[in-house]
């Protein structure tokens, strides 16, 4: 008779990494649905492409590095989904493949795989793609007939035989001085998703449905996204812009709830999470208000990702009944 | 009664209190008992019997020479078959007295109710009874009852939280002997001059709360006695029964880092401990039997049993109905903090509150994967530590970092390992880290000594 001997505890919770990742995937599905509705089947094509290549790259790189096969934890699928959600619908199909490679191989596996990457793979990849393919990454379009009344003047198809028509993102319109003009989508349009933008960011409503699911399942803590969004609202209001418009525009909602909450690259303690949210909000607002680019969510989160190890060191919790140890 | 508050963190494992409604069964027919000479924290006892000696129930067989030690008595009558050395599950060699029972359970003449005249004689009686904390840690009770000057307790906290899954032995104690529990509390309060007592019971044991309250009411109506004892309903959350957590939930006092309950003027006793004190003062029968829960997937009949100390675990399981198949894991204690035995052939000891036998399937450990920094361990840690960081540092042997992240404050409750989705062995790693910190401290001390 052989007895198992191990350190206590001898029972474990049902929670697993795979289940957490599956929850995130489920939470992203409503936004995927809206994306297909707004941008057509091309949206689905891009998502399938990023997800399959992400999983493939994960499998191959693990194999090459002679490590255990980790595709079962579904984190590559989440990375693929989030990467696709950060791409414009018109993007040439080789760009998502390069994006998957950068995200999974360069950012994640080269640093040790899940849990070891110091920046969010999908975000870092998006930034590298934006810098490498500036034109392709900022050509916004939506399905013809989806938005009556607004969009950039000149509604011709972006290419021969494609029913996508060119449009601009709301943040671009603000920067172009169109505030208050007829081409600006209204609050309800912004909320539901009748606007130009990346595949996954347009519908705040669909994303919110996923967020509710994640909160109920206790997959994410609301601390980071809430402080993040409130900081953006406060700062944009302070500088005389419409805070509600900023909250509903661009990648803020997607970024705050699905990227800034990334476990690996955000602080562990609650205090750290609040600092992280404040920092993200500050940088996003500065970029949006004073920067040359229209959108600052990815840079803000990436910057705070890099600061995370330091935030963790600044916010070691005081133990129960204890005093803070002096820093050595 | 008004509940002060609750500690933050903790987990909600499935209760599995399958034995809640099963009255305790007394098991007696053991052919031999094997009594180890160390069943407490502190130096072992000196064996005072030898091979061939006749012994009776309650007779002293292990003399406590060191101040931290408590005596050990025979739990059966019969003949000493052998005195041998064995390697215990802890890895330490320990002397074991093997007694062949004559099945008569003749009581020794020395078993007489103690004469209590003052505080000193009460403490002496507690020590002579062989009592250790019956909650699970096995700390000698008489030591606990003698705090340094100026730290005399003003609150007696009775631990009946029983937050460990499976275990219902303390609950059965409350349900079956509420009178002796209340009497034991009154005795301790009287002799140690403690003005107030609080009994903490988790909310999933309403019956325990009711019977204890009923007992207090009976005292008031029949004897017009109103001891300052309150029964407090606590939130059901693990580790509510951990000393520091319980004290905070009941009194709002925080035991300081590295400190003991007496630092916040509290004495914590387990409900079974006070019940034993009451019984001992009346009968003089030392601690020779233990009530415990027998449960787990490989146990045929989950039950609460009362067995002589030293009873071999295989015989106990057999006498209680046997196993359903090949056991995969045998745990002495609870599923969250108990010790996995390396062999079934161990004995029931004084502070044993459960034996859990898992089948092969339940015994399998999930494979460990990489940490995803989800912070669940940080959120559930009742001591507000960062288990995942400690895990990393322990594996990297970063002693300085371990100290900076307060590793020695860990109470090893297992909440972090329980919730970890990556199935990291956090507590194991922290235990190893603690050993490294201790040996580093010793090395530093030795170096200092050599320098002088």
What would you say this structure looks like, in words?
The complex is a heterodimer of chains A (328) and B (452). With 328 residues, chain A is mainly alpha-helical. Chain A has a domain of 121 residues. Chain B is an alpha/beta fold. Among the domains of chain B are: 165 residues, NADH-ubiquinone oxidoreductase 51kDa subunit (Rossmann fold); 76 residues. Chain B has 14 helices and 17 strands. In chain B, strands 1-14-13-17-15-16 form a six-stranded mixed β-sheet, with helices on both faces. Chain B has a four-stranded antiparallel β-sheet with strand order 2-8-7-4, with no helix packed on it. In chain B, a hairpin with a 6-residue loop joins strand 15 and strand 16. The longest helix of chain B has 26 residues. Chain B is globular, with a radius of gyration of 22 Å.
Helix content of chain A: 40-55%
Low-confidence stretches of chain B: none
Shape of chain A: globular
The largest contact between protein chains, plus residue counts on each side, is: A-B, 43 and 69 residues
For the record, give the distance between the C-alpha atoms at the N and C termini of chain A, rounded to a whole number: 50 Å
The CATH class label of the domain at 119-283 in chain B is: Alpha Beta
SSE pattern of chain A: HHHHHEEHHHHHHHH
Q: How would you write the strand order of the largest sheet of chain A?
A: 1-2
Strand content of chain B: 15-25%
How far apart lie the N and C ends of chain B? Answer: 58 Å
The biggest sheet of chain B amounts to: 6 strands, mixed
Report the sheet with the most strands of chain A, covering strand number, pairing sense and barrel closure.
2 strands, antiparallel
What is the helix tally of chain A?
A: 13
The CATH homologous superfamily of the domain at 119-283 in chain B is called NADH-ubiquinone oxidoreductase 51kDa subunit
Query: Can you tell me the CATH architecture of the domain at 119-283 in chain B?
Result: 3-Layer(aba) Sandwich
How many β strands of chain A by DSSP? 2
The count of DSSP E runs of length 2 or more, i.e. the number of strands of chain B, is 17
The backbone outline of chain B, from C-alpha atoms, is globular
| Parts with pLDDT < 50 across at least 5 consecutive residues of chain A | 150-155
Give the helix tally of chain B.
Answer: 14
